[in-house]
Amino acid sequence: MRLSRFHLATVKEVPADAEIASHRLMLRTGMIRKLAAGIYTWSPLGLRVLSKVENVVREEMNRAGALEVLMPSIQPKELWEETGRWEKFGGQLLKIRDRKDAEYCYGPTHEEVVTDFARQELRSYKQLPVNFYQIQTKFRDEIRPRFGVMRAREFLMKDAYSFHLTADCLAREYQNMYDAYGRIFTRLGLRFRAVQADTGAIGGNASHEFQVLADSGEDAIAFSTGSDYAANVEMAEAVAPATPRPAPGAALERVATPTQKTIEEVSAFLGVAPAQCVKTILVRGVDGLVALCVRGDHEVNEVKAAKLAELPGELVLADEAAIVAATGTRPGFIGPASLPDAIPVIVDRSAAVLADFVCGGNQDGTHYRGANWERDARVTRIADLRKVVEGDASPDGHGTLRIARGIEVGHVFQLGDTYAKALNATVLDDAGKACVMQMGCYGIGVSRIVAAAIEQNHDDAGIVWPEPMAPWRVAICPINAAQNTQVREAAEALYAELSALGIEVLLDDRGLRPGPMFADIELIGIPHRIVVSERGLAAGTFEYRRRNESENRSLDRDELLRQFA
Ligand code: ATP
Ligand code: MG
To answer: Could you report how far apart the first and last alpha carbons of the chain are, in Å?
Structure first.
């Protein structure tokens, strides 16, 4: 491509409302332009990158045996009512009406449409397994669209859906997709982790998210230093400490803590480490209040707590009036010792091995010191209640956990028969009996990958594309070409030669001075830059520099070509 014939529209100014590097750089390079909140146009430059990602995704999906389809974005309300999601999906679902007043939504995902397709197309187990995928625009009316295409309202997704006669077959395809995702993100040159994700009611190993590691990521992930264990922080198991609970050593003693309510205040006031305190929160249970106890330096994990049988499927803190009515004490002074019998006490594994601890006194303005489980405080049951922290033992027994931030770029999920049942999608098995199909779904945020890659690969001068995503691999920058025929001809010859080799090359024939020319080429992140100058030609060399290296090298033609082999 000759840059004089391309639409490159870089800007120097740093956009004021862009909070993260990828958003700033996508605007400065002109890859995207905003049309409305969370809705963007991809410029020719941006689209070159987006298409590269799309192609890698398509190649690997095809290689894995999935079959490409293209489903409509506009989907009828009636279909969504069959699964109950017309109401349940909530505010992210953009609902629209046609001229006859019929209602539709703009597809945020395609389980309904693909299952409707499958129930018409698939009749016999002999047609299974099958995996349909598409690469298509989705719309989700996100509450807070932000960070450009990272969390957009309109975005490009690859979504795949597989159909099976048995759960075993589904598990095999799940592994096949998991492996294909690994190949996709590896080919794209991204540093990523596959992490166990929350599956709500389904449980087990039925869902993984693929997370690109970046400090700006919205998700926290826990991974082991000693194995490939990785999970969402919400999901990661906090294992029981290896050492048993010591025997009580101190007597129970009530102490005055007139204004000290938080763990920080109480531990500072009494001179006791937070890890030697028990933090108690009262939450709404299925039947009355429930007490959840964690160590003072730990935090209750809402996702884990919501799954406790004693809770109504979500974690709702009890309000002050309910707490006072049940305990006669105000929040801040509640503890497990001498708590009314009607309140179950669920204790986190780490809190359960404490002895002689500090906790609320169940009397305004007091705490207990020297409290001990069983002797002073009831334990209804011990459970995994807390968020893991750095340094916790890895649940698989190998190494310790670290916490990192990630950007979710892919998600694989064993759905089971939820959608097929709701839409009555069945096939006949070999005995001629109708069976509801098993389903898996597999998403990749194609447009989000572009932003995630920039988060991981940039410096002060701009984007540093991993080669497979770069808009062009090589840029040729002639110095003073207008005044120097030799330079112009050498640049043209090199451009022709590299193009003939099938290398994507950009010739900067705009006639800019070296400073602004190099600034643009660096900003847009071209992996290899070749400078053609009078001085170099006199010495028989080109000045070559990789975007991810800091020094220039003078290379002759053969050495230069070897860089792209
Ligand atoms: P998130 O937790 O980030 O909201 P999600 O769990 O809702 O994502 P899925 O329904 O699993 O997302 O969609 C598949 C993929 O689509 C995600 O892994 C993500 O990469 C991408 N994606 C989801 N929402 C957006 C969005 N608003 N903008 C860009 N990409 C998105
Ligand atoms: Mg997800």
So the answer is: 20
